[in-house]
Amino acid sequence: MTAPLAGSTGAPDRELRAETVVAAPPAAVWDLLTDLDRMPERSPELVRMVPLKRGGLRVGQWYLGINRRGLAVWPTRNVVDELVPGSTLAWLTTSSGARWVWELSPEGPDGRSTRVVHRRPVPRRLTAVSKVFAPLALGGSAAHADELEQAMVQTVGRLKAAAEGVRAG
Fold first, then answer.
1. Please, are residues 75 and 81 in contact by the beta-carbon 8 Å criterion?
2. What is the mean pLDDT of the chain?
3. How many H-runs (helices) and E-runs (strands) does the chain carry?
4. Long-range contacts formed by 97-103: CB under 8 A, 24+ apart
5. Which of 3, 55, 64, 163 could disulfide-link 24, Cβ–Cβ 3.0 to 4.6 Å?
6. pLDDT of residue 160
7. CA-to-CA distance for 76 and 90, rounded, in angstroms?
8. DSSP-derived pairing of the beta strands 88-93 and 72-84
9. Distance (Å, rounded) from C-alpha 44 to C-alpha 65?
10. Contacts (Cβ under 8 Å, ≥6 apart) of 99
């Protein structure tokens, strides 16, 4: 079952987390995860990820994220800071100070399933832009963090459904 592991503390800079086990091998899940053109199909807030440099998905690649929540639409600047094929994909959202991490690992005795962990730590602190924007446009920083965590649960669930070949809501 897909669910966040920790309850809300109300702190907007807390680590958000969702995880699940997918009945598909890590390579199949990785292929879906790294198709960033299709990530908006899974993420409730993401509209588009646009690469800003040539060279494809790699450490150091910059992406412009276009996000939407209700009437609010905003860009984010993101740089891929960790890429271990088949295992880990992470980027730092420089405009907010958050880091988005995807971790895949084989699960079960035969390794034919995949544990998917999606985390959003804030390594240092949220940026001033984030602290001003969230209360003005998104209903508050803590409320937005709670919504982000629920969206992460949906995103992980939709990834699971895609990998297992079923529809998710």
1. no
2. 84
3. 3, 7
4. 97/13, 97/122, 97/123, 97/124, 97/125, 97/126, 97/127, 97/130, 98/122, 98/126, 98/130, 99/123, 102/33
5. 163
6. 97
7. 15
8. antiparallel
9. 13
10. 81, 90, 91, 92, 93, 120, 121, 122, 123
State the amino acid at position 138 in one-letter form: L
Rounded Cα distance, 97 and 1, in Å:
29
- DSSP assignment of 23-52 equals SS-HHHHHHHHT-TTSGGGT-SSEEEEEE-
**Residue indicated by tokens 């109300």:** 10
**96-136 pLDDT, tens per residue?**
888 999 999 999 888 899 999 999 988 675 555 554 444 44
- Would you state the structure tokens that stand for residue 140, as one six-digit string? 């508050």
Give the type of residue at 168. Answer: A
